[in-house]
Amino acid sequence: MILRSVIFTGAVQGLFQILLLRSKNRNTQADYWLMLWLFAVSVQLFFYFDDLAPLPYSDGIFGVFAFSIPLLSAPILFQYIYNLSTGKNVDFKRLMIYLAPWLTFILVTVSIKISQPHDIFIQFGYPHFSNKISPVIPYIFTLPMAIVPGIYAIMGLIILHRYQKSLPDRYSYTETINLNWLQWLVFSIIILFVVLFIFIRFGTQGRFIAGNTVFEYVGAVLSVYVFLVGYLGLRQSTLLMTPATNRVTENVEPDGPYKKTGLDETAVEQIYVRLLKHMVIQKPFLLDDLSLALLAEQLSISSNQLSQVINQKSGSNFFVFVNAYRVEEVKIKLLDPSLSHLSILGIAYECGFRSKSAFNRIFKEQTGISPAGYQRQHKA
Q1: Which of 7, 142, 295, 331 could join 219 via S-S bond, C-beta 3.0 to 4.6 A?
Q2: How far is CA 59 from CA 128, 149, 163, 220, in A?
Q3: Is 316 helix (H, G, I), strand (E, B) or coil?
Q4: What confidence score (pLDDT) does residue 16 get?
Q5: Are 160 and 82 in contact (CB under 8 A)?
Q6: Measured on CA atoms in the order 113, 117, 118, 124, is the torsion positive or negative?
Q7: Residue 128 pairs with which residues in a beta bridge?
Q8: C-alpha angle 22/27/30, rounded to 5°?
Q9: CA quadruple 114, 117, 123, 126: dihedral positive or negative?
């Protein structure tokens, strides 16, 4: 009874979080995919809530549709991950490929349900079969539930792994764009569906777990996912957008050593000199949201060209390159008597750092000493 109440709460909370997302000043494509996922899972939870009742209303064809929702919500969640981490939306043809397993499942299972309506029924959240049903049919109903969501979850993990690796090459900060939370949630989803398949196919048959309680626990766990994904997705404000190609003003040799960016050694050197001058005079690193795309736009070159120049000439990525300037600026200001009224953290914020933990970590990595220790050492 308690778990059924949790399931109902999760379903309502999913719809409520859709309203919260919709109330944002500006919704991104990722927001709409998240809202669609929340709606699909809320419908699934309402189905569990009803089907676990003594006299459920969701029977027949509707029960088959409701049972198939994981095959629909899995590609939707993957598309949310893809759009959130790349800024790209999926084209219609690819979307149809993503939905093919769900559409195929619906066609096959509904046709079976229509042809043998009394031999297949949904109860306690999952399908039951009479002795007249071929042993193959239960696997048609249940095996895709474990395999298809697992495949999309693995695809999502691959996308997220690439995203995490690309952050230092495109951003000078990572605190608000880290998707570790989503990585762990997707990984746990894989485990959930594998365990779920084992319970459905073997747990109830071997009487390790009561068949009428399996989806009470599944629904309760899914309710937790609805809260976590919705809440953390609502907080996720920054996307790893694929930057548009910027203007290229340099004279370049397309057959030079940098064929991907169109830069030869001379062009690389010229851009690097301009970059260093720009960093000293304009001090763009003081912007706490400085990105590779923004700095490239300031220099009127493409992001790929700027990334190539930084990697080639400085021997580091964008994150290290920019934060080295911030650390040097902090070192100067820590010893400036006119700034003695500012705290160390206040100086760090003025120099472009976004958080205390990131500042302390980066400063110590680059100087071998804490900010307070550096100030004491050089003021003595």
Answers
A1: 7
A2: 12, 24, 42, 21
A3: coil
A4: 93
A5: no
A6: positive
A7: 121
A8: 105
A9: negative
Q: Report which of residues 194 and 352 the model is more confident about.
A: 352
* Nearest-angstrom CA–CA distance, 282 and 108: 64
- State which H helix or E strand residue 126 sits in: strand 126-129
Q: Cα–Cα distance between 353 and 56 in angstroms, integer?
A: 56
Domain assignment of residue 49, given as a range = 2-235
Same-domain status, 26 and 151: yes
Cβ atoms of 51 and 265 within 8 Å: the answer is no
pLDDT in tens, 142-187: 788 778 888 898 899 999 888 888 889 999 988 767 777 788 888 8
- Classify residue 10 by burial, with Cβ atoms within 10 Å: 0-12, 13-18, 19+: buried
Greatest Cα pair distance in the chain: 89
Helices (H), 174-263: 180-198, 214-235
Is 28's pLDDT higher than 90?
Answer: no
With vertex at residue 96, the alpha carbon angle to CA 91 and CA 101, rounded to the nearest 5 degrees, is: 145
Instruction: Say yes or no: 338 and 219 in one domain.
Output: no
CATH of the domain at 323: 1.10.10.60
Reduced to 3 states (helix: H, G, I; strand: E, B; else coil), residue 157 is helix
Among residues 177, 104, 153, the alpha carbon closest in space to that of 358 is found at: 177
293 touches 87 (CB < 8 A): no
Distance CA 363, CA 234 (A): 31
Question: Residue written as tokens 């100030």?
Answer: 375
Q: Is 125 left (phi over 0), alpha (psi -120 to 50) or beta?
A: left
Q: How far apart are alpha carbons 155 and 163 in whole angstroms?
A: 12
Burial of 194 from C-beta contacts in 10 A (0-12 / 13-18 / 19+): middle
User: Angle at the Cα of 274 (from 270 to 275), degrees rounded to 5?
Assistant: 115
Tokens representing 288 are: 């706490």
User: Of 215, 235, 255, which residue sits at a domain end?
Assistant: 235
